[in-house]
Hints:
Layout: H1 3-25, H2 35-46, E1 57-59, E2 63-66, E3 70-75, E4 80-88, E5 93-103, E6 111-115, E7 118-120, E8 123-125, E9 139-141, H3 142-145, E10 151-153, E11 158-165, E12 171-180, E13 187-188, E14 194-201, E15 206-211, E16 215-223, E17 243-249, E18 258-263, E19 267-275, E20 279-285, E21 291-300, H4 303-312
Parallel strand pairs: 1-3, 2-4, 13-15
Antiparallel strand pairs: 3-12, 4-11, 5-10, 5-12, 6-9, 6-11, 7-8, 14-21, 15-20, 16-19, 16-21, 17-18, 17-20
Bound molecules: 2-acetamido-2-deoxy-beta-D-glucopyranose.
Amino acid sequence: MTGSLRAHLCVLLLSVTALRGRGRYIDVQENEISAEGLFSLLNSELKRESPDLYLYRRPLKCLDMVAVEGQFTFTADRPQLNCAAFFIGEPTDIISIEYDSVNINCRGGDFIKVFDGWVMKGEKFPSSQDHPLPLYERYSDYCDSGEAQPIVRSSQNVAMVFFRLHQSGSSFTITFRKVLNPFPCNVISQTPEGRFSMVIPQQHRNCSYSIIYPVEIQIGELSLGHHNDLKRSVPGCAGAGDFVELLGGNGVDTSKMFPMADLCYSFNGPAQLKVGCDNTVVRMVSSGKFVNRVTFQYRLLDHQELQKLKGNSVEDLCLSG
Ligand SMILES: *[C@@H]1O[C@H](CO)[C@@H](O)[C@H](O)[C@H]1NC(C)=O
């Protein structure tokens, strides 16, 4: 068999597997929201005043973004078959969703599903390589377990609720709360500027911090808890069990993003990089043998900086400098 044919078959097999996966888990989750659509939802949501004294209440829309704790009611005024609400907290929060009252027809094909993460255009955050649970355990279906499990919690600061209601007049009410996460691992940043310290304390896991804006990242400190410096003769980070990579891309699945830089030596910064993509990620891979830590800050690239990055590059994929 020739190499190219083998590659071709491999692609075919992959797409069949992907289709199967889709049928099983993400039938309606193919929401066609664009990055711009997501930013504008997020921006308008972040302008809301956070109410302190009493529970904030508002109707939920079929496509919605929620960043303020409160009680949200969706009422179908016609069949609503493909709805999704994005929930986001601070980096040090996890999301809690509580079913207060549900009036849907599970037998008639209605559903409400909470997903542990975000799905955009079929891509998931955190990716399967970074999430502690297998994919099927990240969906929680009200119609299967809602009565028994009225509160669902996420593993990181983002979660989604997918819902399908066939009858007008069907409705449900949920309460969204943010719960402190003492060991944040995977994070989507709410804002295009900020700073963060990611620590993986001797755990065999991977953590991704995702900024869904084109930004300049400045790494202040990287401590990988071992002395990789001895192996400087090895090019790149090949073979390193503990490292940090900077990724850029236009989707949310980190396993499909482009590597912009690999860092496998401890240093005291600053080291900086501009990434002109829709999504910029700092990802730490950890073998579990060491305490690994990376500290970084980031800010939005202005229009001029973006133009300059574009001018420097031959390809128009996603640019860094
Ligand atoms: C972390 O990611 C690497 C690839 O970047 C993968 O080989 C490894 O299995 C992942 N570790 C865990 C615990 O999922």
